[in-house]
Design brief:
Blueprint (H helix, E strand, L loop, with lengths): L14 E5 L2 H4 L32 H9 L14 H15 L3 E5 L2 H4 L10 H16 L3 E7 L5 H7 L6 H16 L6 E5 L9 H4 L8 H29 L4 E13 L4 H23 L4 H9 L10 H7 L4 E12 L21 E2 L5 E2 L1 H15 L3 E5 L17 H19 L4 E7 L19 E3 L11 E3 L1 H11 L7
Parallel strand pairs: 1-2, 1-10, 2-3, 3-4, 4-5, 5-6, 6-9, 9-10
Antiparallel strand pairs: 7-8, 11-12
Helix pairs in contact: 3-5, 7-9, 9-12, 13-14
Length: about 475
Amino acid sequence: MYKPSFPKTFPKDFLWGGATAANQVEGAWNVDGKGLTTAEVVKKTTDRKHMSMDDVTTESIKTAVADKTDTLYPKRRGVDAYHHYQEDIKLFAEMGFKVYRFSIAWSRLFPQGDETEPNQAGLAFYDRVIDELHKYHIQPLVTLSHYEMPIGLTLKQNGWASRDTIADFNRFTRTVFTHFKGRVPYYLTFNEINTGTWGFHATGAIDTTLSKHDQLQLRYQALHHQFVASALATKQLHEIDPDAKIGSMLARMQTYPATPNPVDVRAAQLEDDKNLFFTDVQARGEYPEFMNRYFAENGIKLAMAPDDQATLAKYPVDFISFSYYMTTVTKADAAEQVNGNMATGGRNPYLKESDWGWQIDPVGLRITLDELWDRYRKPLFVVENGLGAVDQLTADRHVHDSYRIDYLRQHIQQMKAAVADGVQLMGYTMWGPIDLISFSTSEMSKRYGFIYVDQDDAGKGSLERIKKDSFYWYQKVIKSNGEDLD
């Protein structure tokens, strides 16, 4: 007789850890032959509820390239993990990390993006990072493209708008897979690939002077090139390092209908489909019909090589990863918009918001996990989730961040419930285990970490690493495999 199984806890091999991005932590932007990136030409915003990451023009890039300082460009300095990585990894190990997600900066290996041979100093740096992780038995999870590419490719060929960028990227990925063979068990291709519909930060393409239609045309064309590059990278990895696995990465924005009115339910369904379209392509290997209809109705015509669709179908990803920070509300008519720098829908009256206008919805994480598992039946991995907050360092050098503990506890409880629902969940890498430069606003005041970094928005400070209360809490969570959440 069939006896259903309902796991009451996380699997024994569950991958607990944290996640960062090179352009937000490394610094050393002009050290050891590294080239300038798209992330390092975007100025710090003056309004924390406005994202300046796509407000770029050819002239603003030229101005940024000519500026040899990090004053206006905080991602150039990060939190100097380039020189502090040993200290940082030791702290991660003290918490008990099983995995650490980080990105390899394309421009450290290929400074302009189109060189034929890699920069050996860049490879040597990541050799040292991976060796240090292995020293503490922490598994590397490497993101291949996390919101940065060599600015040289923007200036030469307008980034991913050009099909030539596929070959440049896959030269980079082949180098990574070959050099680190047997040492990196997990890779992700493009971070939050769906945000390429927002523009420059993910496509490396300048499009601010285009009409709305032409922007969409360019962005979806750039995304098609990324889809092909991702499939080819999957092919490369499976050939070069068959034991390693590669996944897609989505910025998951679960959408609720504003009312039970069927037209609102349908509007929410359409928004969700547009969000999941990206994972449909990378995990199922094909463009879904609803998106083909959207392209046709909006006059978007994608240029494809004859074998592109066969390539996508033949090389889908091994697993699906995603970030989860918030949910949104959709109404067929215009709804009140959330005043947040990454909020894309209406306000939900049942949810609280962070200082940055992000609606906090732990239950939405379970809903998302259940829906993704039902749709794809591929292993899932929560690779970003966290609370950006203004932390206060006390006179005796402590940070009491009970609000962060409460946030993470509620989300982990919902992950545990999803596992009991039958979801195959690989792991959880909380976003920003150490304070870093904010992606959306390039400020330091928006802190996520278990580890406080003594640096302010102007880059002043000792860079001392200080354990917050949440450090010790997460240590207990990992040690108990998610059982001790008090």
